[in-house]
Every structure is written in structure tokens, then in C-alpha cells.
Amino acid sequence: MAGEVNVTIVGNLADDPELRYTQNGIAVVSVRVGSTPRTFNRQTNEWVDGDTVWVRCTAWREAAENIAQSLSKGTRVVVTGRLKAPSAYQTAQGEARASLELEIDVIGPSLRYATAAVTRRARESAAAVESPWAGEKATNNPADAWANPAEAAVDEAPF
Fold this sequence. Notes:
Blueprint lengths: L4 E9 L4 E4 L5 E9 L2 E4 L4 E4 L3 E8 H10 L5 E15 L5 E14 L14 H5 L31
Parallel strand pairs: 6-8
Antiparallel strand pairs: 1-3, 1-7, 2-3, 3-6, 4-5, 7-8
């Protein structure tokens, strides 16, 4: 959609994914991703960690279930999604804070320091939709090349 800010974040999951279901049975998962920038200090010849940025990420439906089954706390992930307006809140100590929220488009484990085995899930919704051509039978008429293009034995050019 126009006007949305798309971002990519590389970081670690702070917790195991939290899978919930709405009253209508739609799956929603929530994960916190922490991203800490590292810079090299040439004066001390050491890597220095910056301040960690925490982002609350959510995904819906089948993606939510896949995330909950596949990822766990500490997993390094690459997340792409739409940034939402920050929400302000106060901590128990009275400090004013704001949280970044991201609606996940794509998420996956980072393969820089790990391996992953991918298992493709069958689409459940595709099986429920009946094909509009399911009841029709193919004709074996060689003159009807459009009906059965693989079976047509016409050696002439179609134009």
C-alpha cells in the first residue's frame, strides 16, 4: 500500500514466538526481535556494541503458524515488513518509552552462522477450492488443439 514504510531488520528473537488465535480462528504470532549494531573502534582495536533496538513483529494466518513451528528464542532472523507508527507507553518505573512495531511480510533464519532445513507445507486453502474444470472431460478431437494442446498432432503452424 502506498505510504507505508518497508524495512528489513536482522537480529535475534528475544523470546519464543507467541502464537494466539482470534475469536474467528485466525492465527496471529508475535515475536520480539533485538538488533544490536556493532562497530569497530580503531583506537582500541575492539568491536563495540551499540544500543539494542527492540521491534515487536506480528504475522497472521499460515505465516503465523509457520513461524511458531520453525523459530525459537535466540534464532538469528531476517525480517522484512511494514513499519507501523510507534506506540508510546510508560514502564512500571514511570519512564516514557515508545515501541516499534512491524507487520511481517517475510521472515526467515539467517544462514550466516547456522543451517536450516526447509519443509514446504501444502496449502490447505488451495485444496478446499474446487476447480471450475473438474467436471469437464477432455475431448480427443485432434482438430480442437486449444482443448488439448499436448495431445494435438498437428504439424502445421498455428498462424
